[in-house]
Structures are given as C-alpha cells and as structure tokens.
Write a sequence for this structure.
C-alpha cells in the first residue's frame, strides 16, 4: 500500500495506472481504495513553518478523494490530515470549502502581548489556504457557471 505525501517538487508526475492507495486520516483509520493521484498542490508557508497541502485522487470506478493536510514544523502543533470523498468533481470544491483552515492551529502562547500576532497569523493562514483552493479549482477546471 502507498501513503502518498504531497511533494511540491515532484507534483507534476503521477502514475495514472490505478493502484492500491491508503490515505492517512487524523483521528480515524486510513482510507484504502484503488485509484490514482490527480493533483498534488502545496500552499505557501505561513509563519515560517506552516502550510496546507491538497491531494486529489480519482478512486475507481467514479469517486474522488480530497485530502487536505495541515503541515507544521512547530513543536506545540501537530500536522493533521483531513479527508472527504465525493461523487463529482464539483464535490471536490465542496470538500475544500467545508474545511476550516485554522482548526488545527495553536499558534502563539496565550497572553495579551500575542493577541494581534495570533490574529494576523490566522488571517494569513486563511488567505493562503483560499489561494490554494483557487489554484486547485483552476487546475481541475472546476468553475461556477451562471
């Protein structure tokens, strides 16, 4: 079994031959399926050591798996993996929009002197996540039609 980990330096080459994949989910058992990676996209770092990474899989026969990882290098924080499945490509965007990008953030210690820094950190993390969602939607050609 494979546990794909986003690697932005090798995000352009993914085998399209279906394989047995296992995707880790924080607080749950891994999700195992036959499929392949469609897209791996890592966001820009926030606060030096924090970023989100999104991996989209096509699961056989006609399902999509969206994995969102919060990756942190800070000792007080834990990297997490959030996974949702959908029947349509539009469901990928629904999953991305349902995710709360600061849910797993600890950030600065408690204290009045850190309040403004914490607010800025949260805003930056949300903005960079939103930018990442837009990039994923654009690359997968998921659009809102009027």
């Amino acid at each position: 079994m494979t546990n794909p980990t986003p690697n932005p330096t090798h995000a352009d080459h993914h085998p399209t031959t279906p394989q047995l994949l296992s995707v880790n989910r924080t607080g749950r058992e891994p999700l195992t399926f036959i499929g392949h990676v469609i897209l791996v996209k890592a966001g820009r770092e926030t606060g030096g050591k924090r970023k989100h990474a999104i991996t989209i899989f096509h699961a056989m026969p006609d399902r999509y798996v969206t994995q969102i990882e919060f990756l942190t290098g800070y000792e007080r924080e834990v990297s997490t993996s959030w996974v949702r499945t959908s029947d349509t490509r539009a469901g990928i965007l629904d999953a991305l929009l349902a995710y709360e990008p600061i849910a797993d953030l600890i950030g600065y210690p408690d204290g009045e002197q850190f309040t403004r820094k914490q607010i800025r950190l949260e805003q930056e993390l949300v903005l960079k996540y939103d930018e990442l969602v837009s990039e994923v939607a654009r690359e997968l050609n998921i659009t809102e039609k009027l």
Q: What stands out?
A: The beta strands are 19-23, 31-42, 50-59, 63-72, 80-86. The longest strand covers residues 31-42. The chain has one domain: 8-139. Residues 1-13 have pLDDT under 50 and may be disordered.
